[in-house]
Design goal:
single chain, 447 residues, alpha/beta, 6-stranded mixed sheet, 3-stranded antiparallel sheet, 40% helix, disordered N terminus
Length: 447
């Protein structure tokens, strides 16, 4: 059945993996992108800016400290912090963006550029703020992730990809080696099950890792992209079925809990906050390198050790299968009254050595060369966040399509995985429905 979208959104894909398209229906006011004729003295007038972000406690604590440090340098600029977890955050921002009440500075997800700026005019043009925001510290290939219709809407704070991380303390206790292949991961389930444990978890509270992992597996097996460069579906219906079969095999082998088991324990509570993670009942997670710190910190407080595992591969893989994307980006509201002050604050967060050391890797390994140098000078570029980022960068990754995290698409993934896990539909039935719905969505947003 065809799905009707509220608005047809045009898209613009990036660099080596994406292609640009025009907008038919989007009607957005042009942003205020002109720098004042005379440079603004950002130390003169007292102004208040709102800054919105999502994350875990480690990110919140560090960001609040950075805001305090910025205030010491610019006492006339007050920053009102608006933050919380990921669940429900996108819906809240959608309401604010639609109603014109969004914050002055926003942490944005990759797919939000598609949603809020289909024609490139949804956010402030950051290249017009060169007097206040130094872009020379960023590689152009990285900045390309933040462009829409050639306009720099946002700056990637870091790049990331999901990797497998393991509670080494629990693996050592069970006496199983950290898996290096899909077969080894599947085989580990029985040994853990004998002790009432699980070697892995796909954190349904944080998005769509169940489908993500299955896509990686099928990209390796087939050599096809899940979503092609032109925005069409690259998987066949049989590929989709095999991906769902693979997901079900993880449950059947006791590698992961079923959706019902996880929901019964904690609902949508993020995994790192649940007793199962904190007590080592589940000993692995598929997570972004930019977000793994909260899992690591939670285990450290319990005297347990988190380590990065190898990227799971099959012997005859036709591609690496694993994805890379911008972890998150910073943007300025096109309607802000104080663009120069907002850019000054962004420049501090992105490029200032003091801010870099305060923020650390709570948003991943910085893409800014200045911030990266500041962390390297103090020996902070180590640990699992750095290792995970480097692992993805060096694996010949597939650049994730901007369409993959579209909210309509994510709802399709979630529904299909739930049908398979709860047994309400066979993988064949779920795949047929999923294939048709994904094709319809892509037809609408990629034209």
């Amino acid at each position: 059945m065809k799905r009707t979208l509220a608005m047809v959104m045009s898209t613009c894909l990036l660099a080596t993996s994406l292609v640009g398209c025009g907008s038919d229906n989007a009607k957005t006011e042009a942003p205020k992108t002109e720098t004042p004729a005379e440079k603004v003295d950002v130390t003169a007038d007292s102004v208040t800016l709102r800054f919105n972000w999502w994350g875990g406690d480690d990110r919140h604590t560090a960001t609040l400290a950075a805001i305090d440090a910025f205030k010491a340098k610019y006492p006339n600029i007050s920053i009102e912090a608006e933050y919380g977890g990921w669940d429900g955050h996108a819906e809240k921002i959608t309401t604010q963006m639609t109603g014109g009440t969004a914050a002055d500075i926003l942490q944005v997800n990759y797919d939000w550029l598609l949603k809020f700026s289909p024609d490139g005019t949804g956010f402030y043009n950051l290249e017009s703020l060169g007097d206040y925001l130094d872009l020379s510290t960023f590689n152009e290939n990285v900045l390309a992730f933040g462009r829409r219709k050639g306009v720099l809407n946002a700056i990637p704070v870091s790049t990331t990809g999901r990797s497998a991380y393991y509670n080494k303390t629990t693996f050592d206790k069970v006496g199983v080696a950290i898996p290096k292949t899909w077969d080894e991961l599947l085989a580990s389930g029985s040994a853990f099950a004998a002790q009432g444990l699980y070697p892995f978890d796909l954190d349904t509270g944080a998005g769509f890792p169940g489908w993500y992992m299955s896509v990686v597996y099928m990209q390796q097996k087939t050599g096809r992209l899940f979503i092609n460069e032109d925005g069409t579906l690259g998987f066949t219906q049989e590929d989709v079925k095999e991906a769902l079969d693979f997901y079900k095999s993880l449950e059947d082998a006791k590698v992961i809990r079923t959706q019902e088991e996880r929901s019964n324990e904690a609902g949508t509570t993020p995994l790192y906050q649940t007793p199962s993670w904190l007590d080592g009942k589940v000993a692995g997670v598929l997570e972004w390198s930019s977000s793994i710190g909260k899992y690591e910190k939670a285990l450290e407080e319990k005297g347990q050790e988190l380590v990065l595992g190898d990227l799971l591969m099959m012997d005859d893989a036709k591609s690496t299968g694993w994805f890379m994307k911008p972890s998150l980006l910073f943007a300025i509201n096109k309607d802000t009254k104080y663009p120069a002050h907002a850019a000054t604050f962004l420049n501090y967060l992105l490029n200032d050595s003091e801010a870099a050391q305060i923020l650390g890797t709570t948003r991943g390994i910085p893409a800014s060369s200045a911030a990266k140098e500041a962390l390297a000078s103090t020996g902070e570029l180590d640990g699992v966040a750095f290792e995970g980022t480097t692992q993805i960068e060096n694996c010949d990754p597939i650049i994730m399509s901007i369409y993959m995290e579209n909210s309509e698409m994510k709802e399709v993934y979630k529904t299909a995985v739930e049908h398979v896990s709860y047994g309400t539909k066979s993988t064949e039935e779920a795949a047929a429905e999923m294939f048709e719905e994904m094709t319809d969505i892509l037809d609408a947003i990629a034209q």
